[in-house]
Amino acid sequence: MDSRKIALQETKTIAIGVGIGVGLMIGVFALLGKYDTSVLLGGITGGVLAVLHFFSLAVITTLAADRAEGGDVQSGVKLVQGSYPIRMLALAAALFLCARSGYFNVVALALPLAFVRPTITFAEFFRKKGD
């Protein structure tokens, strides 16, 4: 399968998992009586940021793998290592600006970032051999 298609397919899986996690999180806020519009906005925005962050990682990793297949392993390693601080700073800046605006519940904004890892684990558990 084309590496770009793999990155998009994996991002789609992450988006579904994060979406389910955000829905459950909003449900918990509602059950606790803490639900308001800021929770909804925070959950949606945090989910989008989490998926975009994963997508950027998938694209960078795909580019690095393509470089490594072409024989330029060092360039691929440098690309991944160099992109890490940029991705982290961009994510931190987006979270900071959103939190500072006052429109978003900070917990609901940050929590979707934690839904990516369990989604990956869950997806790997059900992945067929050879995929």
Brief sketch in words of this structure:
By secondary structure, this protein is mainly α. Helix content is 82%, strand content 0%.
Give the distance, in angstroms, between the N- and C-terminal Cα atoms.
Answer: 10 Å
Structural class: mainly alpha
Percent of residues in helical segments? Answer: over 70%
Total of helices: 5
The total beta strand count reads 0
Query: Which outline best applies?
Result: flat
Q: Major β-sheet, in short?
A: none
| Rg of Cα set | 17 Å
Mean pLDDT: 92
Q: Spell out the helices and strands N to C.
A: HHHHH
The low-confidence parts are: none
Question: What share of residues are in beta strands?
Answer: under 5%
Q: Topology, please?
A:
Blueprint lengths: L2 H29 L5 H33 L3 H29 L4 H5 L5 H11 L5
Helix pairs in contact: 1-2, 1-5, 2-3
Structure characteristics:
single chain; mainly alpha; flat; 131 residues
Verbal overview:
The protein is mainly alpha-helical. It has 5 helices and no strands. It has helices at 3-31, 37-69, 73-101, 106-110, 116-126. The model has no long low-confidence stretch (mean pLDDT 92).
